[in-house]
User: Which sequence fits this backbone?
């Protein structure tokens, strides 16, 4: 089984809705969404999502699919189990968090990936004040599925 797989159309639609509501400036950025089927830990925590700028090889292979002569500008991977077993509200939080890493300059077309303000983004803390432990809940559900899968 390959490590990465396409996200379903329903997840793409959720992402488009998050883009339109919170990040309209990113609508023209060519973003590839993938599920990561392998558990990935960093600093003792399950990585729920990761935002990366593709290297030249990935850009080359993605020119046709992305409908962009430069290929994809950003690749965002999400832990598959985290997304499958998260509520819709938690998936929106996760998508929103990952998209917050992307800074786009429309004048130059430059993409910059932003680090966290701390372990999160200040703007996300405010948006998630009704449920500050959502990430722990999603990670716990995903880890449980990895244990079940063996």
Assistant:
């Amino acid at each position: 089984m390959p490590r990465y797989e396409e996200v379903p159309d329903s997840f793409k639609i959720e992402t488009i809705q998050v883009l339109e509501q919170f990040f309209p400036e990113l609508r023209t950025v060519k973003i590839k969404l993938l599920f990561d089927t392998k558990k990935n830990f960093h600093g003792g925590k399950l990585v729920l999502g990761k935002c990366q700028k593709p290297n030249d090889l990935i850009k080359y292979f993605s020119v046709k699919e992305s409908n962009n002569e430069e290929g994809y500008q950003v690749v965002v991977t999400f832990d598959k189990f985290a997304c499958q077993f998260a509520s819709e509200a938690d998936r929106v939080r996760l998508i929103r968090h990952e998209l917050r890493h992307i800074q786009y300059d429309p004048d130059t077309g430059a993409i910059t990936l932003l680090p966290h303000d701390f372990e999160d983004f200040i703007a996300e803390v405010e948006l998630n004040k009704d449920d500050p432990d959502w990430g722990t809940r999603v990670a716990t559900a995903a880890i449980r599925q990895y244990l079940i899968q063996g």
The mean pLDDT is 93.
